[in-house]
Amino acid sequence: MASPTTTTKPYSTLPPNASPSTIQPFTISISSQKLQDFQTLLRFSPLSPPSYENQEARKDQNLDLGVTRAWLAHAKDYWLNTYSWREQEAYLNSFPQFTASITDDDGRVVNVHFAALFSKKKDAVPIVRMHGWPCTFAEYFPVLEVLKKKYDEGDLPYHIILPSLPGWTFSSPPPLDRDWKYADSARIIHKLMLALGFGDNGYISHGGDIGAAIARHLAVTYPECKAVHLSFCHMPPPDDAEAIEATLTVKELKGVQRADEFTRTGDAYGRMHGTRTATIGHVLSSSPLAMLAWIGEKYLEWADPAHPIPLPTILTEVSLFWFTECAGTSLYTYREDYRWGVNQKGYLHNAEWLRIEKPFGYSYFPEELAAIPKAWAEKTGKFVWFRRHEEGGHYPALEMPEVIVGDVEDFVASVWK
């Protein structure tokens, strides 16, 4: 699946204090047999018959019951007859990628895949950005494109590291003999940053969705993580939510209502992930069309309608899940969300033990699944930077990459001295 060849790509020179013995260049190379098997499976995967629930007209009646048959039929045809995985593979490989052999606390070796833009600037700021589900490391590539156009590797002010979380794509899956949680992934990502030589001066964590929780864990747990920037700050209402409500703007109130609606009608997938993890893992691993329906729905519904995610982008993300067989191994975080964590007051993003006492920044996007207002989010840490955007949804790196670059640059300038 990969070849540990040397690389001369721009932005690929490891930082001077990195541990080269543990880090190898990486090239994505899906075998022709695997690609052929995928195309055969997809070709013979039947669509479900027309039903009341899967008709486009249901959306016109404000009754959204999931992916329509028409969209899935079009996407299947495009995937088979127009989309080129080899072209996308070449595009992905145009960015520097690596694997790092990380020794965990119990002595086991975890292979961590990551993409990166490394700067040759001596005082470049290390930033590790974590993805969520159903995204991969490639979600952030539009941001890398913006940075590459703005800076060459000699004056890029940052080292941007995009790890594949354990269980995702080309990173090792979690162990078979014990559970795995957010804190476990955070520990591995921290060890990766140390292997890259960022232990002395530290680094900044940055993330959305599941990656926001891991970014928070890094900031709370490890002194080397000096600050955190989030684009997602999901949390239950604070104790004084009713009093705060009177101070919220109309758009902020709509964001809170959107979060309530998501909890009521949109998070069945998460409950399935968290409570029947094995079952849904089997289902998604058995058919590329089933995986496309399950994941495609999230890209269709979670983006700002003003910034829809293009079908080829969706297909690349789903293809990465399919070819790396990570549909089942990437679901572990949902047990923390829906089995035990959800029963703890203020679990996960705003838990008392996850309060951030380091510089904390938050970018607010009104069409986010849970567009948490500033007055709520600032209760969860040492709030030093905030920007409210007038548009944007759950995938700002895909929807508005220039905006994310601006936010991250402004945040870093305000906290890194």
UniProtKB/TrEMBL annotation:
<dbReference type="GO" id="GO:0097176">
    <property type="term" value="P:epoxide metabolic process"/>
</dbReference>
<dbReference type="Pfam" id="PF06441">
    <property type="entry name" value="EHN"/>
</dbReference>
<keyword id="KW-0378">Hydrolase</keyword>
<protein>
    <submittedName>
        <fullName>Alpha/beta-hydrolase</fullName>
    </submittedName>
</protein>
<dbReference type="GO" id="GO:0004301">
    <property type="term" value="F:epoxide hydrolase activity"/>
</dbReference>
<feature type="active site" description="Nucleophile">
    <location>
        <position position="209"/>
    </location>
</feature>
<feature type="active site" description="Proton acceptor">
    <location>
        <position position="394"/>
    </location>
</feature>
<comment type="similarity">
    <text>Belongs to the peptidase S33 family.</text>
</comment>
<dbReference type="InterPro" id="IPR029058">
    <property type="entry name" value="AB_hydrolase_fold"/>
</dbReference>
<feature type="region of interest" description="Disordered">
    <location>
        <begin position="1"/>
        <end position="20"/>
    </location>
</feature>
<feature type="domain" description="Epoxide hydrolase N-terminal">
    <location>
        <begin position="23"/>
        <end position="140"/>
    </location>
</feature>
<dbReference type="InterPro" id="IPR016292">
    <property type="entry name" value="Epoxide_hydrolase"/>
</dbReference>
<dbReference type="InterPro" id="IPR010497">
    <property type="entry name" value="Epoxide_hydro_N"/>
</dbReference>
<dbReference type="InterPro" id="IPR000639">
    <property type="entry name" value="Epox_hydrolase-like"/>
</dbReference>
<feature type="active site" description="Proton donor">
    <location>
        <position position="334"/>
    </location>
</feature>
